[in-house]
Every structure is written in C-alpha cells, then in structure tokens.
Amino acid sequence: MTSQRKNWSSPTFLRLSAVAVVAAVTAPLLAGCGSSSSDKTKDPLAGSKPSGSTVVVGSNNFAESTLLADIYGEALKAKGIKVTYKPNIGTRETTYGLLKNGAVTVLPEYNGALLAYLDPKAAPTTMEATDSAITQKLDPKLTVLQPSAAQDKDSLTVNADTAKKYGLTSASTIADLAKHGSEITIGGSPEFQTRQQGLVGLKSVYGLTPKSFKALDAGGALTEQALKNGNVQAADIFTTDTTISKEKFVVLQDPKNLFGFENVLPLVYKSALPQAGVAALNAVSAKLDTKTLLDLDTQVQTESKDPLAVAKAWLSSAGLV
Predict the structure, then answer these.
(1) Which residues are CB-neighbours of 129 under 8 A, at least 6 positions away?
(2) Same fold, 11-151+260-317 and 156-251
(3) pLDDT at 175 over 60
(4) Which of 308, 13, 274, 67 is nearest to 4 (CA)?
(5) How far from the centroid of its chain's Cα atoms is residue 189's Cα?
(6) With contact defined as beta carbons under 8 Å apart, do 48 and 101 qualify?
(7) What number does CATH give the domain 11-151+260-317?
(8) Which region, left, alpha or beta, applies to residue 158 given φ > 0 means left and ψ of -120 to 50 means alpha?
(9) Nearest Cα to 239, choosing from 174, 196, 291?
C-alpha cells in the first residue's frame, strides 16, 4: 500500500489483507448484521447487475468499510435514490471486478491503496496527483468522486505519558518529537525498521533517530499493547485505530507526507449513479475528516453500536439527511 503509502507489503495493506482472509471465511455468518448486512437475499459475491435504477453500495470485509458504505447508502436514500447493499465482499481483486461489470455501483475506497492496486510503481507527492493518477488507470466505466479529508493511514503515534512528558498535542508534528529521539523506543512491524515509510524516512525527512526499535506487528494488537504499556513510547498506528481515542494516544502530524495519502473516497460505476447521487456523495466527503471517522469507528468497534444507527446519526448531525 513505494515510497507512497500502499505498496503490496505495507503494514496497512497487510492489515486489510489479513482482515479480508478472516472475513472471507466468516462473511456468510456476518451477512445478517447491521444495515448493509441486512440484505440476506443475495450472495455478497454475486455478479448479477441490479435491475432498474437501484444503486448497489458495496463494502469490503472490515468494519470501517461497512460503516462508510452505510453512510454512503443512507446519504443516497435521503435523495430519493433506491439503494441495496452488498456487504463484506472481500479483497480489492473481487470488488474491482464487481464494479467493472456493474454488479456494484458504489464502494468506499482509499486513494493510495487503490492507486497501488492499479499501478504499484506510482509515487505521487500530493493528494491531487494521487487522484489524477487513479483516474488515468481506472477502467473507463469507473470514476472516483471527491476525496474526503478523512484518512486511514500509518502514523507515528505516542502514548499519553509521552505526550505529556514532551508537551505534544494533536497539533504537534513528527519533527517536534525528533529532538527527543534519543530517549524513545519506536515500535512497528519488522519491515518498518528498513523502509522509507518507516525509520529510514523518519530520519531523512524529519531528523528523528530513536534510541531503539522494537519489532512488533503491523499496527495490530501487539503494537497497541506495547504503546499502551509504555514498552514503546511511539509506534506505527493507523489513524482511525480506535485505541487512539480509548487510550488517549496522540497522533503526530505528518506535514511532509512521509506516510503518503489514504483519503477515503467513493469509487463509482459511472452509468448507474445519477447526478443527484454524485452530489450526495461529494457532500459526504466534504464533511468527513479523520477525527470524525475515528469517532464513528469508536462508536461501532469499541461501543458496539450498530453501524447503520451510527451512520444515520452522523448524517443527521452533519445536515446531510
């Protein structure tokens, strides 16, 4: 998920792939849960096209994608558009194929990950360049709509004690931690130690060289626990990981975009989405930022709220329904 975020062996790609493997096994069991998973009449992997003017909103098989699909679907319904869901579909290879043949109309995507799938050698340096490169590589029947400010990407995150010790806040940057590098241990996947989007880049881009590095996992439970317990003071944590809010971790800003771009945006089968639907989804993107997405993820994944209810409540609060 190259030096831009998502190459195929990146921590974020590995995380989503791992979830995809597990969910592919359990998808039939999940098909009855939540709004998008309430459509029991169809196999999520079925490739038949919808009839009439129905817009089919799909989701990949992890919780955040399901939540985003619910947000998209309910925003479309608010404009009088008929919507059905294909939840928990699986890997990008499957979802992209269903979009190309029109079996799915709308899918929540991440621009960096999508571009890495379409062109693994691409290395754009801005969000706009990322989206432009996607447009050039997409199947002509597909398009991406406006990206949101919300990103689910790798970050350098410190625990609450470290933030307090060095006076770091959500407005602080990685450079603000660099001056304390000799006092901290950073945790992450083994690959993080040798990658540009890891210790190599932290040193060359921000001048941060830690006292030591602890090999853990790709933003998973081992990394979260080590940061919580203080075994590491900073770690590679995904920006919408719900432990951030639960444990009061502080995500450091990355103004030089070392970790690339992973903006949430809709991937669309063009001929099946009316202009009113395009406007509705662009309005969602205009309101959705990382802080908001983290809060919504926390409600679903930590507080065990139904994603449909969370989606509806946020859309209402944002004036989108």
Answers:
(1) none
(2) yes
(3) yes
(4) 13
(5) 18
(6) no
(7) 3.40.190.10
(8) beta
(9) 291
Question: Nearest-CA neighbor of 50 among 236, 269, 205, 302?
Answer: 269
Q: Which two tokens stand for residue 109?
A: 């995507």
Per residue in 65-123, pLDDT (tens digit) is: 999 999 999 999 999 999 999 999 988 889 999 999 999 999 999 999 999 999 998 98
Strand order in the sheet with 55-58: 83-86, 55-58, 106-110, 264-269, 142-144
Prediction pTM value: 0.82
What is the dihedral angle through the alpha carbons of 98, 103, 107, 113, rounded to the nearest 10 degrees?
Answer: 10
Residue 11, pLDDT above cutoff 60:
no
Residue with tokens 């690339």: 260
- Alpha-helical (H) ranges within the chain are 11-30, 63-77, 92-100, 111-118, 127-137, 160-166, 174-178, 201-206, 221-229, 243-247, 275-287, 290-301, 307-317
Determine how many CB atoms are found less than 10 A away from the CB of residue 304.
7
CATH homologous superfamily of 156-251 equals: Osmoprotection protein (prox); domain 2 (3.40.190.120)
Q: Where are the domains of the chain?
A: 11-151+260-317, 156-251
Report DSSP state, residue 33. Answer: S
Structure tokens, 58: 């799909």
Dihedral sign from CA coordinates of 156, 161, 164, 165? negative
The amino acid occupying position 46 is A
Q: By the 8 A CB rule, do 152 and 64 touch?
A: yes
Neighbour-count burial of 159, counting CB atoms closer than 10 A to its CB (0-12 exposed, 13-18 middle, 19+ buried): buried
